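Exercise 7b. Backbone tokens:
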């Protein structure tokens, strides 16, 4: 279930980084190219659903994004995207990161952002992504991007027209998550 994950006040008493100059949006953006064109698939969430969980300090923040809710830059590629991502067997892309690592990154600016786990088509890969933590309207904003290979997730880049059009193995995944501080010593990650 996509939505907001509530967990006990991990950041109690922690100062937030400085304000971001740009607006903060919850999104996941996948872009790539073939030998003839570029394409993208975008998921934006302006109305996150709320899901409460009592997570311990060492647990992960997990955000599930329904593959069917992505919008394609070229609508003719939408069904190919669903098939490539094995949507019928694995209907969601999951992005997760450690609460503990997030707290360490907030306490010490020299620490890297948390390791990000991306699960596509049932395969999970861990990435050390250069990302940024910033304050956004009193909330924490985690933003980053990473180039990933489809083959790492056991996905074969599609080819069309007897191989004349071939999708490159590398795609770029960009994301932005708002982490909200709630009134009951909890915070939540939304998308």
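Sequence design result:
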């Amino acid at each position: 279930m996509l939505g907001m994950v509530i967990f006990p006040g991990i950041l109690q008493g922690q100062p937030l980084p400085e304000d971001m100059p740009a607006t903060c949006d919850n999104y996941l953006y996948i872009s790539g190219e073939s030998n003839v064109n570029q394409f993208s698939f975008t998921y934006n969430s302006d109305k996150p659903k709320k899901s409460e969980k009592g997570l311990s300090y060492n647990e992960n923040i997990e955000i599930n994004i329904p593959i069917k809710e992505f919008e394609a830059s070229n609508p003719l590629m939408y069904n190919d995207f669903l098939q490539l991502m094995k949507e019928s067997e694995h209907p969601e892309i999951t992005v997760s990161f450690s609460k503990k690592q997030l707290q360490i990154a907030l306490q010490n600016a020299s620490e890297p952002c948390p390791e990000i786990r991306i699960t596509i088509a049932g395969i999970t890969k861990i990435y050390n992504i250069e990302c940024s933590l910033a304050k956004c309207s009193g909330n924490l904003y985690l933003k980053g991007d990473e180039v990933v290979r489809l083959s790492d997730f056991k996905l074969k880049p599609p080819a069309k027209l007897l191989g004349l059009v071939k999708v490159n193995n590398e795609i770029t995944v960009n994301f932005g998550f708002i982490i909200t501080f709630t009134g009951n010593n909890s915070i939540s990650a939304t998308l």
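Instructor comment: The chain has one domain: 4-190. Residues 4-190 form a domain with the Lipocalin fold (CATH 2.40.128.110).
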